């Protein structure tokens, strides 16, 4: 019988192999040149909804805030959602942010989804919008992200453009001018990717986790240069490569 650990190791190996061609193409040309070669790149900037969603790539769409804000608290999450004009709040199973919150409050794994749901319901009530569960579109119990998108446009949904690496998405514009909370979400995404539920030790300096700022060509506050400067304030390990691109100018 295959154990849960052995099963995860096989899944990790299989998914890493599946992502190899995209990794190699980006390594050969750099992120900007690579995305410029994608014929459907603009599809990644045509959001399908205005739901507040987790940064987890398995809950694609909408506006992204880890655990729908469970780690930043109700006041900051409400301000973020209002700035983003979110029309509903979602939660999901197997939420890494909710797991961190539960652990910090002495709660077990069996309470993680309850924590995610309860916070989402509280936030939705404060906003006067619906609350709903977001189904997972990806492997349960495993994060197959090879990138972290630090999105300055407020529009990015990489899942809508084939060829973009799978990644966490952090929607930067709806945080306050102080980037500290947004950067904390980057740190959390790095920890998940490097942890037992991610590709972990498969990330190396030669095959790094990509940290991809997406510059907004319409707003200097969130230009590629401004976002890159914010991200450089992080003490990034060698296994993380910072390389971004500017979104299409006809958005």
Description:
- The protein has 251 residues and is α/β, with parallel strands linked by helices.
- It has one domain.
- It contains eight helices and nine strands.
- The strands form two sheets. Strands 5, 6, 7, 8 and 9 form a five-stranded parallel β-sheet that branches. The chain has a four-stranded parallel β-sheet with strand order 2-1-3-4, covered by helices on one side.
- Helix 4 packs across helix 6 and helix 5 packs across helix 6.
- It is globular and about 45 Å long.
- The model has no long low-confidence stretch (mean pLDDT 94).
Which key terms come to mind for this protein?
alpha/beta; 251 residues; five-stranded parallel beta sheet; four-stranded parallel beta sheet; globular; 8 helices; 9 strands
Name the helicity range.
Answer: 25-40%
Proportion of residues in β-strands: 5-15%
Q: What is the count of structural domains?
A: 1
Average pLDDT, rounded to a whole number, is 94
How many strands, which pairing sense, and closed or not: the largest β-sheet?
5 strands, parallel
Query: What sort of overall outline do the alpha carbons produce when their principal axes are compared?
Result: globular
Number of helices: 8
pLDDT under 50 segments (min length 5)? Answer: none
Structural class: alpha/beta
End-to-end Cα distance, whole Å, is 52 Å
Strand/helix succession: HHHEEHEHHEEEHEHEE
Q: Provide the gyration radius in Å.
A: 17 Å
Question: Using DSSP, what is the number of strands?
Answer: 9
